[in-house]
């Protein structure tokens, strides 16, 4: 099974594509969609959408998961992330995929075992779980991979999908 995880953001949207077989994960591809701060918002969102759509077409994931928005005291930042989340959800839905969402707390709990883990702990666990030479960077990429792994654990434990 191929799972694609997304950590949305207007400036950086991380993505991670993993294969999940039994209880084992293998990294297929990871990276980030970058947008320039100086261009209009609609162009930044279009870049995110078109790049995610291309990644979905290339990898044809069976499952698609997106990180939910955490509470943010800065309303402007929360709104910007919300725009990117909407585009990420649309890319999955437009490809005919069921879209799953997980809070940062759920993702950290699934990967590190502690919902209040910091970014370095998540990166370390991703590196260890996938047997990588170095931790994925920036942290948006590690978070996206963590979302995919979180979803793999969730569907396996919930028995939602036969593996």
Descriptive account of the structure:
With 163 residues, the chain is of the alpha/beta class. The protein has helices at residues 41-59, 75-94, 104-111, 119-129, 139-158, and strands at 2-7, 12-21, 24-34, 63-67, 99-102. A hairpin with a 2-residue loop joins β2 and β3 (24-34). The mean pLDDT is 92.
List keywords for this structure.
globular, 163 residues, five-stranded mixed β-sheet, alpha/beta, single chain
Identify low-pLDDT runs.
none
Which structural class should the secondary elements be placed in?
alpha/beta
Can you count the helices? 5
The general outline is: globular
User: Per DSSP, what share of the residues sits in E-state strands of 2 or more residues?
Assistant: 15-25%
Compute the number of strand runs: 5
Give the H and E element order. Answer: EEEHEHEHHH
Brief summary:
The chain has five helices and five strands. The chain has helices at residues 41-59, 75-94, 104-111, 119-129, 139-158; strands spanning 2-7, 12-21, 24-34, 63-67, 99-102.
Summarize the SSE layout with pairings.
Blueprint: E1 2-7, E2 12-21, E3 24-34, H1 41-59, E4 63-67, H2 75-94, E5 99-102, H3 104-111, H4 119-129, H5 139-158
Parallel strand pairs: 1-4, 4-5
Antiparallel strand pairs: 1-2, 2-3
Helix pairs in contact: 1-2, 3-5, 4-5
């Amino acid at each position: 099974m191929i799972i694609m995880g997304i950590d949305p953001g207007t400036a950086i949207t991380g993505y991670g594509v993993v294969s999940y077989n039994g209880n084992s994960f293998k990294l297929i591809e990871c990276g980030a969609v970058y947008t320039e701060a100086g261009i209009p918002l609609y162009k930044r969102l279009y870049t995110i959408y078109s790049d995610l759509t291309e990644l979905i077409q290339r990898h044809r994931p069976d499952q698609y998961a997106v990180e939910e928005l955490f509470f943010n005291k800065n309303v402007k930042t929360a709104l910007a992330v919300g725009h990117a989340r909407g585009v990420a959800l649309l890319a999955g839905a437009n490809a005919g995929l069921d879209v799953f969402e997980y809070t940062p707390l759920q993702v950290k709990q699934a990967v590190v075992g502690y919902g209040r883990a910091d970014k370095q702990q998540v990166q370390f666990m991703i590196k260890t779980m996938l047997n990588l030479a170095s931790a994925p960077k920036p942290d948006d990429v590690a978070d996206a991979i963590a979302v995919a792994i979180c979803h793999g654990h969730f569907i396996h434990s919930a028995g939602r999908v036969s593996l």
